[in-house]
Amino acid sequence: MCPLPLSAVSELRAEAAPPTADAELLRQLQQGSEAAFRTLVERYQHRVYRTVLALLRSPEEAEDVAQEVFVEVYQTVGRFRGEAALSTWLYRLATSRALKHRRRAQAKKRFAYFTRLLGFGNHVLHDPADHLHPQAQLEGEQQLQLLLAHIARLPDKQQVAFTLRHEQELSYEEIAAVLQTTVPAVESLLFRARQTLRTHLQPSFRHA
Fold it and tell me: Which of 36, 96, 148, 158 has its CA at a distance of 20 to 30 angstroms from the CA of residue 54?
């Protein structure tokens, strides 16, 4: 069985299902139901994609990583013991995969830079073109891009907490479950993230 292409359900906007519905879906998934897997993709693909996109800022990369998330779900669901809600598990996988992908890309970029700097190889490093976040087409594009750039510089946990809170609108309790931490810790992460962003962005947004 192969996961459905994410593009096949890209227009769906389904919200997370009630816990009881997810519990039944999980039971069917662990029994190897193809129909249950299709339901999972249809129910959660948009939320997973949006979470990954918020961290990577590249639609193409986000599509690939979101696909990897569902492949991982298919391969590991038999070992999932329900210690967290199904939606929480998916957010956890999505953020983990996205951050791992970004670190890998950054490591490759640094390696290419240093090999060129030290004279190893004759290739010329070309930085990948920046991909615009969908919201960047709105009014105030320059300010939005500045905001996104500063969000991307936040420490990983602050960035994930900020993204899940302000882009996915998760509750503090849900974010704590995803990050496997406490609500006060989430509050602290968000406070520090907002303080950092406010400090760096205040001069640029003073007249906004």
Answer: 36
